[in-house]
């Protein structure tokens, strides 16, 4: 018995996504071709793998059983490819990566040409979004994330710290006044990502201050918070890799510099659980980790 590996991969994605059309689109297959490939796999196995209705699909008992075997088969093949690539020195294959839009634009995008110059046989699919993606469901090999990861089965590796600071433009502070204590922040327009956000701050005596702040506008894009802060719309809390050059140039001023942000944010690389890190994933991660650290040093090393 022989399997078309694409059909095997397609079946696993259909089972993961619960949608034939979406799974087929990931492979560039039409709806008709996707259905034909699944039917060919069922014919090869002589079992029914999927229950299909006009509204949904589900796995049959045989489909549930075969799914585990299919995943192991694909993992074994990928492990073999990884071992061979390490022996031959050739890194190849499709690599799907996601990162936040602001971070990706500054820390990843500028270095992609150099990476592809070193590894011309890698096909990179880079998705920049501030929406947290389920990388297992969506089939990503690697994600760069910032902040608290929370409990997860994903494999996480710390890449660098992500120090943050409260900042405002000189013209805003001249107009609205300079906060002297954390409590003063409640009287200011604060640029946030949530309607009523809590900023956790700690002073030099190690006393913690939890301040509920708000502003007339919220936004999910970190760059927008920096842009609005530069425009004098209020006080923002942002990563130093975003604000370092503006602080040096005097376009932004630290607010409550005697306070530290208690969020203890980190920059992480996360990947789906698995037995081996594929050669293309390791090559990309090692390459970008060095560039991320270099970029951060250039952005704010003299400010902390």
From TrEMBL:
The keyword Transcription applies. The keyword Transcription regulation applies. It holds the Pfam family HTH_1. Residues 3-60 form the HTH lysR-type domain. SUPFAM superfamilies: Periplasmic binding protein-like II (SSF53850), Winged helix' DNA-binding domain (SSF46785). Transmembrane segments: none annotated. GO terms for biological process: DNA-templated transcription. GO terms for molecular function: DNA-binding transcription factor activity; sequence-specific DNA binding. Keywords: DNA-binding, Transcription, Transcription regulation. PANTHER family: HTH-TYPE TRANSCRIPTIONAL ACTIVATOR TTDR-RELATED, HTH-TYPE TRANSCRIPTIONAL REGULATOR. Belongs to the LysR transcriptional regulatory family. This is HTH-type transcriptional regulator DmlR. It comes from Ruegeria meonggei. The lineage of its organism: Bacteria, Pseudomonadati, Pseudomonadota, Alphaproteobacteria, Rhodobacterales.
């Amino acid at each position: 018995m022989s399997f078309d590996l694409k059909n095997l991969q397609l079946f696993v994605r259909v089972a993961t996504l619960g949608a034939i059309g979406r799974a087929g689109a990931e492979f560039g297959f039409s709806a008709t071709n996707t259905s034909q490939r699944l039917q060919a796999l069922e014919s090869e196995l002589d079992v029914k793998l999927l229950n299909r209705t006009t509204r949904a699909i589900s796995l049959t008992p045989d489909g549930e059983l075969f799914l585990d075997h299919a995943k192991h088969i694909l993992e074994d093949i990928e492990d073999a490819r990884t071992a061979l690539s390490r022996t031959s020195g050739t890194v190849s294959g499709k690599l799907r990566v996601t990162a936040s839009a602001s971070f990706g634009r500054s820390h990843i995008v500028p270095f992609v040409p150099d990476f592809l110059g070193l590894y011309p046989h890698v096909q990179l699919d880079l998705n920049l979004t501030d929406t947290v993606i389920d990388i297992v469901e969506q089939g990503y090999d690697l994600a760069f994330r910032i902040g608290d990861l929370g409990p997860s089965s994903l494999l996480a590796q710390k890449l660098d710290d992500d120090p943050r600071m409260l900042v405002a433009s000189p013209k805003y502070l001249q107009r609205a006044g300079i906060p002297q204590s954390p409590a003063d922040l409640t009287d200011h327009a604060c640029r946030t990502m949530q309607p009523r956000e809590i900023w956790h701050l700690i002073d030099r005596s190690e006393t913690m201050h939890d301040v509920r702040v708000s502003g007339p506008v919220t936004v999910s894009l970190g760059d927008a918070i920096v842009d609005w802060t530069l425009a004098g719309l209020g006080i923002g809390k942002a990563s130093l890799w975003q604000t370092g050059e503006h602080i040096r140039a005097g376009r932004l001023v630290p607010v409550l510099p005697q306070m530290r942000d208690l969020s203890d944010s980190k920059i992480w690389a996360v990947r789906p659980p698995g037995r081996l890190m594929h050669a293309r994933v390791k090559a990309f991660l090692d390459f970008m980790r060095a560039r991320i650290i270099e970029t951060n040093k250039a952005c704010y090393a003299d400010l902390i």
